[in-house]
Design brief:
The chain is α+β, with helices and mostly antiparallel strands. It is built from 15 helices and 35 strands. Strands 18, 19, 20, 21, 22, 28, 30, 32, 33, 34 and 35 form an eleven-stranded mixed beta sheet that branches. The protein has an eight-stranded antiparallel beta sheet with strand order 12-11-17-8-9-16-13-14, with no helix packed on it. Strands 2-3-1-4-5-6-7 form a seven-stranded mixed beta sheet, with helices on both faces.
């Protein structure tokens, strides 16, 4: 029987599908536990402290915090909700003894709900189910709870796991109740449920030190900081410890600083014991999954298992005529150094060499994860060019297998026909269709991962921006056959120069334009989408010829249709196999792999 390390400590993670209210609930827990002064100004979603997280309204990196409730200390880990950042969830669950499973009172369990719950159940964690957003007009809390029970049964939950407590919350208002018909007043019922139902951490202080590193941070003054949970033993500032590396090596070092979490701050402490979640400084070159242990009695913990990535992109040095004009880091060594640093803290991506010294293959969980990485590099001053996403395949005795996703779509009834037709062309198979009678339909499909590449933009266009799309890796299946690519060609600039309003006006009838007048262009740069299937080389820098004849209509102003500005994700989804996205700190451009028009024609032959 395991020994309780600290009966007044609780370690809990908040898990849910994206946008179901995890970070908002953590905000309310922080406020009601007295972390902030009554007159203190605190930003919404205080834990989302990365600029991209605030812009997009999603959590990208798992964050630790701690609150006090009566005599108890509750360590809380806020996790990402998007499937592409599932690696953050997997390593976070190694630090905790229980989970709060948040489910939207209207949307119910969605693909990532299944993923995070499956990982929690596999680790034997006991869940507390929190039905959030009960204030929504379309809330259906009772039906959603039934769907949650069905999900537990489907995932083969054990008897003690399926016997979970249920709370109903409005995270924005900071209320919780055990009865959906009785309004809550504060979050005390949730605090009480955590104290009562999450087991205190187990471990023995007298045993040799075992600390599993589950996260990393860095400081300009302290260097790399390891964040993890102590499973056994104690640690003090100045202790000599051994880092058990993933390759079997050991590295002797000394603990120079020790911290614990208190609200949004880290507090310096002298020592910590089994059950505590702590931060240690002074450990150079440590990575996630390694064990900090006693030098005399080395007992490493098995490393964290992370699901394999399924989507790859080639990152390369920017080779366009405009390379080096915006970025600070433009060489292949800059690119490789940045990706090596990313590997230290991001356990769900891999980097592989290619035939070219100027290119590397980056393999991740999905398009969003890789585009977030590219966007962060762009903001740091990097210039690079990236290819169209490709799937990772497996070669098995019977042939080739490819990754398959579970796709859940929520659309208005009027759009279900066009969505089903579009997915049929992408080798999707419908598995379920539910109409709740609210004018919207939920459609579930199994679809090859490559069928989803480039689908999001088409989906938003087909549903006029009202559709909701979620997907999750499901498994590997035999190759599903060819999938048609982009049906349209592109308009390609045939010379260097600046785009003129006169040229763009005459090209509007050929297709959709991506650039504005005055934009610098070069040969091989894509300036628009052609209405026909073939590519067309165009002179976008053509100027109006002047003459000495006058007419009453000659000086009429040119009226241009506003260009379709592509963001990074849209650009990556749009490009074809023979095209690249050029990314600089100031600009995102689309281009052909081969810039010269005559060389492209020769290659096609």
């Amino acid at each position: 029987m395991s020994t309780v390390a600290n009966s007044l400590l609780r370690n809990v993670a908040i898990i849910a599908h994206v946008d179901h209210g995890k970070t908002t609930l953590v905000d309310a827990l922080l406020h009601q536990s007295g972390v902030f002064r009554s007159n203190e100004r605190v930003a919404e979603r205080a834990l989302d402290n990365i600029e991209l997280e605030r812009e997009r309204g999603i959590t990208i990196m798992a964050k630790n915090t701690a609150v006090r409730y009566n005599d108890f200390t509750i360590n809380i880990v806020d996790t990402p909700g998007h499937a592409d950042f599932g690696g953050e969830v997997e390593r976070t669950l190694t630090m905790v003894d229980g989970v709060l499973l948040l489910v939207d009172a209207s949307e119910g369990p969605l693909p990532q709900t299944r993923f995070v719950l499956r990982k929690a159940l596999e680790r034997g964690l006991l869940p507390i189910v929190v039905v959030n957003k009960i204030d929504r007009q379309d809330a259906r809390a009772t039906e959603v709870l039934s769907e949650v029970y069905d999900l537990f049964i489907d995932l083969d939950a054990k008897d003690d796991q399926i016997d979970f407590p249920v709370l109903y919350t409005n995270a924005k208002a900071g209320t919780a109740t055990t009865n959906v018909d009785e309004p809550g007043h504060d979050l005390r019922p949730l605090f009480d449920a955590i104290v009562a139902h999450v087991h205190p951490p187990s471990g023995e202080r007298d045993k040799p030190l075992q600390l599993l590193v589950a996260n990393l941070d860095s400081s300009d003054y302290l260097g790399r900081i390891a964040i993890g949970r102590i499973f056994n033993g104690t640690v003090q500032v100045g202790d000599s410890v051994v880092v058990a590396k993933l390759d079997g090596d050991v590295q002797r070092t000394r603990v120079t600083k020790l911290f614990k979490f208190d609200g949004l701050k880290r507090v310096v402490i002298d020592h910590a014991a089994a059950g505590d979640i702590v931060c240690l400084a002074g450990l150079n070159d440590i990575t996630i999954g390694e064990t900090i242990t006693d030098p005399e009695h080395q007992s490493p913990i098995p490393p964290i298992h992370i699901d394999e990535p399924t989507v790859s992109m080639v990152f390369g040095v920017n080779t366009s005529p405009m390379s080096g004009t915006d970025g600070r880091y433009v060489t292949s060594s800059n690119l490789r150094d940045r990706l090596d640093r990313e590997l230290v803290g991001n356990v769900s991506i891999r980097v592989e060499d290619t035939d070219s010294a100027d290119q590397v293959k980056v393999i991740g969980r999905g398009e969003l994860q890789l585009s977030i990485l590219i966007e962060m590099m762009r903001r740091e001053g990097y210039e690079l060019q990236v290819s169209r996403p490709q799937i990772v395949t497996l070669t098995v005795p019977g042939g080739t297998e490819e990754p398959v996703e579970e796709l859940v779509i929520d659309v208005a009834e009027e759009f279900q026909g066009v969505v089903i037709a579009g997915l049929g062309m992408r080798r999707a198979t419908m598995t379920k269709m539910v109409n709740h009678g609210s004018g919207r339909v939920r459609l579930e499909f199994r679809i090859p991962t490559r069928g989803l590449i480039g689908f999001r933009s088409q989906f938003l266009t087909d549903t006029k921006g009202t559709g909701i799309l979620n997907h999750l890796f499901s498994g590997w299946e035999p190759w599903h056959g060819p999938i048609a690519g982009r049906p349209s060609g592109v308009l390609v600039a045939d010379r260097i120069g600046k785009a003129t309003a006169f040229a763009l006006y005459n090209l509007q009838e050929r297709g959709e334009i991506f650039i504005e007048p005055g934009t610098a262009v070069y040969q091989g740069m894509i300036i628009g989408e052609n209405a026909r299937p073939d590519d067309m080389d165009v002179n976008v820098a053509k100027e109006k010829k002047l003459n000495n004849m006058r007419s009453s209509t000659a000086e009429e102003g040119i009226r241009l249709i506003p260009p379709r500005a592509l963001n990074l994700e849209q650009a990556i989804e749009f490009i074809d196999e023979d095209e690249l996205v050029e990314i600089t700190p100031k600009t995102i451009r689309l281009r052909k792999r081969i810039l010269a028009a005559n060389q492209r024609r020769t290659t096609k032959r």
